[in-house]
Amino acid sequence: MTTVEEPGRRERKRLQMVAHLVSVAGRLFETQPYGSVTMEQIAVEADVAKRTLYNHFPTKEALLAHWLEAELKHDLERLAPELQRRNGFVARVSAELDASADWCGRHPEHLAAYLRHRFLSLGEASPQASTQADPDRGDIAQLWYMLIAEAQASGELSDRCSTKQLTTWFHHLYLGTLMRWLMEPTIVLRKEFAQMVALFMDGAVQRT
Hints:
Blueprint: H1 7-31, H2 39-46, H3 50-56, H4 60-85, H5 89-106, H6 108-120, H7 140-154, H8 163-183, H9 189-204
Helix pairs in contact: 1-2, 1-4, 2-3, 4-5, 4-6, 5-9, 7-8, 8-9
Pfam family, one: TetR_N
Domain HTH tetR-type: 15-75
DNA-binding region: 38-57
C-alpha cells in the first residue's frame, strides 16, 4: 500500500533541501572564485544526485540568486538595530547602502553574475514563485518600501507619488549605480551611493 505524503510535509522537506543546497553552494561561492564553481561540484559536495539539484535550481545563477537573497535577509536583520537608532530616511538608507557597498567590494564577481541573472530573467515567470514561503529569502526593495513609507508618513518625503512608485524608482537608481560601479571599478561605491541618495531626495523631498 502506497503512503501518500501530506502536502505540508512535502513542502517542509523541499525547503529543507533548498536550504541545504544553498548552504553548500554558498560555502563554495565564498571559498572559490565564482567561475570555478560548477553544478556538478555542488551536487557532489551536497551529496545529492545532479537531477535533484537541477530539479530545485536549473542553473548556477539561480542558486547564486537564492544564496545572495538569503545573505541579504540575514544582513538586514543584523542591521535593523542600527536603522532604528538613526532618524530620517537619508540616515537610515545610507546605513544600509554603506553595508551594501562593503559587501559588493568583497564580492564583485558574485554581484556581476547576480545582476546578469536578474536582468536576463526579466519577463519570465519568477523562479521565486515556488519558494515564496521560504523564510530565508530576502529582497532589498522591501526595505526601500518600508523606509520610504515611513518617510512619507512623517512628511520627510512627498506623498504626490505612491510608495510603490518611489520604491521602484529608488531601486532602479540602486541597480544602475551598481552597474556603473562594476563597469568603472575605480569609482568609490559609498560616495556614488551618497550622490544617488542626494539625487533622489532633490526630486522626492517634501516642499512647502
